[in-house]
Write a structure and sequence with these properties.
The structure is a homodimer of 360-residue chains. Chain A is 49% helix and 14% strand. Chain A contains 13 helices and 11 strands. In chain A, strand 6, helix 6 and strand 7 form a beta-alpha-beta unit. The interface between A and B is large, with 85 and 85 residues.
Chain lengths: 360, 360
């Protein structure tokens, strides 16, 4: 309401009364449903949504309550974008690169092969143009996005046989996510799309020869080490994959300003908290895996080089053919390149020296 | 109040009424003053307190207002701990290692030589025992602490002459922070304690031979490159220094639960935001410095090794003589060591490969 029409309707007495004793505004009661793409057995990755919802509730005296639903409970794990777009649920928590079938541009909000590490991703999102550019892209889906979780650099996965060179990759049937799968295809790998719960039996039976999942903490739980001893790294297709909170635009616009601010900071808190959880829990899990006979091995150099080259070709194709990709990629790649130059200096030299220490 | 006694006092009618129309609770109006240790010219490091205060204000509809004061405005930059302890101000934003004169244990909440990088520090604080242990320590100072900002690995600083070996360090007069100064002394350096604003003239006149400050973005502003061309890295004494928000215990306890939650998430948001700011702004500043003739150089290996050894000796001394240090250090060092083992694998292999790319 404009001030002029307010004066007209309320009269001077009304205005004075409002000025004299500021109105007690009740905090609005709001309930949202959050659909996660993850099973609740993954305490770190699924847990980030709980951390978020819990903090929002505490920060609003319980007035803004977000119930968190595991993948499949309300909608299928990969149905969450449609559900948010249509307003079936107010929000979801997912890994954007699951939706490269809709548009490969989704992956720039998550991870692409040879992309950014976790810190670089956060810097691009929060202090570069990342949040601005991805938000423009998501308007097509009625989505407002918030970075909410990162696993750090993932492992390359579990291989039944060691990989000595690029030749060993040819013909391998590997469970791997879709963007990376396209790169793997160019190396002669036969990528397979298999839900998390079915990976173990497939690997055990030899239906597949290799599978990637996340990293030591999550992988240990699923027991892959029992049926494939070679744990190869790094997951060059996800150097710092970011999860997102997607909020339906209409639901977002209906929030009062204070709740909007609370959602933003609670999502940032969950973002850093999930990365911290992985950084805190992976070391012990890795030690346990090695204790159980797992063989750690970096990818051979020729595999890395071939994968890098194939990735550049795919990026070039997308820049020619996909208008959404083209709007974001140049900014993304410049930021990545600049940041890598800087990380080579103080950050890398510090880390590298610490890696040479004999630490009990 | 127990439900039983509530029923007794209010009667059934009261309960029904309460249920029918929930009481409208006004949000409490609170004003705090935050004393920063930093000048407001440092937009990243000083700016983190503004980001924090702004978010708290937005999240409470302007009801909880924290005014941010630059170093010296209310209390001297290094007087902020006393001010919070005595309740002169409700909170401050500072680098805990400024207070190693009170107790070297402060530095474990910030940075010690050859400590953790930024991600490792966050993991220890949020998902290890870091927050718990440092909070126990700070009860002696009437302080409740919150991680709030990180610069990432800093540069080693500006040297008038290149450093070819440990011998070149002997006798150097260097402006350096205090914990690191103790290590430098053991290498034959003469550490100097000089406020930020006086470094440039001292370096220009040759009163000092070297000075460390932060990293490219902040250092460029102060113009050190004009009077010392050798920019040496890494700052092995601050691989990921963390700033803290210190809140006076009484002021903290007086906050309603929702404001407490808001302070926590707003501090975490400012924490990640400041690191993102440095990661986003340092690359261009570094490029500009190199364009102006700055010579980048890593510390020679014998300097790094001697500094590492001297640091271990100091840690051992503190573990023998300082009860506060002894309560935290074993947990801190185990976490650091475990995390370094894990970071060597996927994280490092990913970064290292990206460092080998020719990026335009």
């Amino acid at each position: 309401m404009e001030r002029r029409s307010f004066v007209k309707q309320a009269g001077l007495a009304g205005i004075l009364a409002a000025g004299a004793a500021p109105a007690v505004v009740a905090q609005q009661s709001i309930r949202w449903r959050l659909a996660s793409s993850f099973p609740n057995s993954l305490d770190t990755i699924f847990g980030a949504a709980n951390v978020f919802a819990q903090r929002v509730k505490e920060a609003t005296n319980g007035k803004f309550e977000i119930t968190v639903h595991a993948g499949g409970e309300l909608v299928p794990p990969f149905g969450v974008v449609d559900a948010v777009q249509q307003g079936t649920v107010e929000c979801c928590h997912t890994a954007p690169y699951y939706f490269v079938g809709k548009d490969p541009t989704f992956a720039l909000d998550c991870a692409v092969p040879f992309g950014m590490n976790a810190r670089q991703t956060m810097a691009w999102m929060y202090q570069g143009n990342g949040l601005k550019l991805t938000r423009e892209f998501y308007t097509q889906y009625n989505i407002v996005n918030f970075p909410m979780g990162n696993t750090g650099a993932q492992m390359g996965g579990w291989f039944r046989k060691p990989i000595h060179s690029l030749a060993d990759m040819k013909g391998l049937k590997m469970r791997i996510s879709s963007f990376a799968g396209k790169v793997m295809e160019r190396l002669g790998v036969v990528p397979q799309n298999i839900p998390g719960g079915d990976i173990y039996p497939s690997l055990e039976k030899g239906t597949i020869d290799a599978a990637e999942w996340v990293g030591p903490y999550d992988d240990l739980k699923l027991g892959f080490y029992k049926v494939a001893k070679n744990y190869i790294y790094p997951g060059w297709w996800e150097g710092g994959p970011q999860l997102s909170l997607y909020v339906n635009t209409k639901a977002w616009n209906a929030l009062p300003a204070d709740y909007k601010a609370i959602v933003e900071v609670a999502a940032a808190n969950a973002n850093i908290n999930m990365l911290a959880a992985y950084d805190a829990k992976n070391p012990n899990a890795l030690r346990e895996l090695v204790g159980r006979g797992v063989k750690l091995q970096p990818f051979p150099k020729d595999v890395m080089e071939a994968a890098y080259k194939a990735t550049q070709d795919i990026f070039a194709d997308l820049s020619r053919t996909n208008a959404n990709w083209k709007k974001i990629y140049p900014d993304w790649v410049k930021f990545r390149n600049d940041d890598i130059l800087w990380f080579r200096i103080a950050e890398n030299e510090f880390d590298r020296f610490m890696f040479t220490r004999k630490l009990a």
